[in-house]
Design brief:
The protein is α+β, with helices and mostly antiparallel strands. The protein has helices at residues 3-11, 19-74, 77-84, 108-113, 187-192, 197-229, 233-242, 253-260, 298-301, 315-326, 345-349, and strands spanning 90-92, 105-107, 149-153, 160-164, 182-183, 267-272, 274-282, 288-297, 307-313, 328-333, 352-360, 378-382. The chain contains 11 helices and 12 strands. The strands form 5 sheets. The chain has a 3-stranded mixed beta sheet. The protein has a 3-stranded antiparallel beta sheet with strand order 10-11-12.
Length: 383
């Protein structure tokens, strides 16, 4: 039997009827394999760019939340906790004032808190001594004492006049700068208790070093924040680390441009050019006299810079904080990988990744920097 007759015979058998369709389906199977391979590459690329965008946005905005939380911390809780340790350093009342409604002893904490030198955590703002707020608390109620008084010499230099000098003007989103020397010690407490000039001077210097420390923290934090947010540096670096098809200077330009608008956060210092220092000498026979009132500038103190009290967000920054609370939408196009069919999917479909990033604190208006600072800014990512 010749070969031709054998093949013809085999093809006429029932078992051979499936052979021809199977041979015709082989190219289709190959196309499916190529298609699955290309779809896998496309999916991997999409996920890679989505992760890069999420990671870069979170990394960059973490610099903003950390900066805002640092400012909120130094605006109240830090100095309050430092001065809280001085509540046991007390002096007795002068006998002549005993029984007139004043405590038998008064502390260094009271001397400065009732002088308007720092705010206290609530709820008791009369005494100012309160425990730590609960971890879940969303309002630490930081306020200055409402009791400080200031005394000035009259023109004839032999009488003193006093007036109320509460801190209501300071407890505003944009406080007005102070042009006069501000009291940070309570006159009544100095007058009615057995302080010596040496004690008052030592405690005055001990207190003042902390505002200068906080001023250094403010300047260092601000410098670092400006460096890592300049030109959306962390965002570009974070994005390029997770993808292979762009350099940091070229990565995610569209998203970086949008995000950069909200990285220009301006937190301004509220500083005093001079503070008042009162002193007196208490003699053993029970007599006392507040005989020294000095306006001490930073130059006289020897610090060479103004006295830092707190920091606050300017009006433009408060507007940006409201937008950041709602969220900033980042939409970033990306290039699709080459495929087996030679189709330019990037040009045809214009694929992109998207994320909404927000920074929020638990307060209406999203301003937890000043007044009533609360260091609880968080970052939220949404699709």
């Amino acid at each position: 039997m010749c070969l031709t007759e054998w093949i013809s015979c085999k093809l006429s058998e029932k078992k051979a009827q499936i052979l021809l369709p199977s041979v015709l389906l082989v190219p289709l199977f190959i196309l499916v394999v190529y298609l699955l391979f290309d779809l896998t590459n496309l999916s991997i690329s999409k996920n890679q760019h989505q992760f890069a965008l999420d990671n870069a946005a979170y990394s960059q905005m973490s610099s903003v939340s950390s900066y805002l939380n640092a400012m909120a911390m130094i605006n109240g809780p830090v100095l309050y906790r430092v001065m809280y340790t001085y509540q046991d350093d007390k002096v007795p009342i002068i006998p002549d004032y005993k029984g007139m409604g004043w405590p038998d002893e008064i502390s260094v904490f009271d001397l400065f808190y009732l002088g308007g030198a720092f705010p206290s955590i609530g709820p008791d703002h009369e005494k100012g001594l309160n425990g730590k707020p609960r971890a879940e608390s969303t309002n630490w109620d930081l306020q200055y004492s409402m009791l400080p008084y200031d005394y000035k010499l009259t023109r004839n230099d032999n009488e003193l006049s006093g007036h109320y000098t509460g801190r209501a003007d300071w407890m505003r989103p944009q406080p007005k700068p102070s042009t006069e020397a501000e009291p940070i010690m309570n006159w009544d407490i100095i007058e009615k208790y057995q302080w010596t000039s040496q004690q008052l001077l030592e405690y005055f210097i001990e207190y003042l070093k902390w505002p200068f420390y906080e001023g250094d923290i403010y300047r260092n934090q601000t410098y670092m924040f400006e460096q890592v947010t300049k030109n959306a540096y962390m965002f570009r670096e974070g994005y390029s680390t997770n993808v292979k098809d762009c350099k940091p200077s070229e990565c995610a330009k569209q998203s970086a441009r949008v995000l950069s608008r909200y990285l220009k956060i301006h937190i301004l210092p509220f500083e005093l050019k001079a503070v008042k220092f009162y002193s007196q000498d208490y003699s053993g026979d029970g007599s006392s006299h507040v005989g020294n009132i000095m306006d001490l500038t930073s130059e006289k103190i020897g610090m060479g810079r103004d006295i830092f009290m707190f920091s606050y967000a300017d009006a433009a920054t408060i507007s940006k904080l409201r937008v950041l609370e709602r969220g900033v939408v980042l939409k970033q196009p990306f290039k699709t990988p080459a495929n087996s069919f030679g189709k330019n999917l990037t040009q045809k479909y214009k694929p992109f990744t998207r994320v909404t990033v927000s920074i929020a604190c638990p307060r209406r208006g999203n301003n937890c920097v000043w007044p009533n600072p609360l260091p609880k800014y968080n970052i939220i990512l949404r699709p």
